[in-house]
Amino acid sequence: PYVPGNSPGYNVDPGTGGNPGGGDPGGGGDDFQVSAADQMLIWAIQQEDMDEDDIVNDHPNCYGTGRTGNVRFQGTAEHWLIQFDYVNTVPGGLREYSIPGAGPSGGRGYADIANTLTNEFFEIKPNTGNNLALGATEVANYVTKANINCPPAAGMWTTGTNYPASGKVFPHPKQPGKVLVAMLTAPGVIQYEVRD
């Protein structure tokens, strides 16, 4: 391992650029040679890392990002459970589908669930307060903006109906002994509640 002042420096073979004059950038040690081929490999790996960073930081539009929220935020674990169940049991299911122009300030928005085979969107909300109305408004916005900015290969995007209204029951991810019940409460709105 590199220990400043106690580890060898590095140098590219003479005439290839690199660290002419020797010495490690940390200020100590003897030089060892890195061949031009090794340096090319290092640069290729560094470029791959930068390319991956660009993808992570600048998602393309109109695809399931699979992005995650902070599990400590209220509702994140419940969202994950419902999303992962859907994408693993329903063909065409994607999570956190990126839609340009659908965000709260007009930027990119993310539908909780998209189905690219049936052209459906779903928004997941707790079954409390005015979350049904909020979910219905959000999913309607996703449908409108996706039909403009992410037109499917065939048909049009719609609010989702391909989810059981009677509900799906999961072990609660944070409360042992309780269950999470998720159900379709309106087109495109999946709501969940905790039960004993």
Summarize this structure as a short list of keywords or feature phrases.
two-stranded parallel ribbon, 9 strands, disordered N terminus, globular, alpha/beta, seven-stranded mixed sheet
Give a structural overview.
There is one protein chain. By secondary structure, the protein is of the alpha/beta class. The protein is built from three helices and nine strands; from the N terminus they run E-E-H-H-E-E-E-H-E-E-E-E. The strands form two sheets. Strands 3, 4, 5, 6, 7, 8 and 9 form a seven-stranded mixed β-sheet that branches. The protein has a two-stranded parallel ribbon with strand order 1-2. Strand 5 (120-126), helix 3 (131-149) and strand 6 (158-159) form a beta-alpha-beta unit. The longest helix has 22 residues, at 36-57. The protein is globular.
Mean pLDDT: 82
The percent of residues in helical segments reads 25-40%
Number of strands: 9
- Helix-and-strand structural type: alpha/beta
Instruction: Please tally the helical runs, counting DSSP H or I stretches of 4 or more residues.
Output: 3
Secondary-structure element order, N to C: EEHHEEEHEEEE
Task: Let me know the largest β-sheet.
Answer: 7 strands, mixed
Beta-strand percent range: 15-25%
Shape: globular
Which residues form runs of ≥5 with pLDDT under 50?
A: 1-10, 12-29
Distance between the termini: 53 Å
Structural Rg: 25 Å
Write the layout of secondary structure elements.
Elements (H helix, E strand, L loop, with lengths): L10 E2 L20 E2 L1 H22 L18 H14 L3 E7 L9 E7 L4 E7 L4 H19 L8 E2 L8 E4 L7 E8 L2 E7 L1
Parallel strand pairs: 1-2, 5-6, 5-9
Antiparallel strand pairs: 3-4, 4-5, 7-8, 8-9
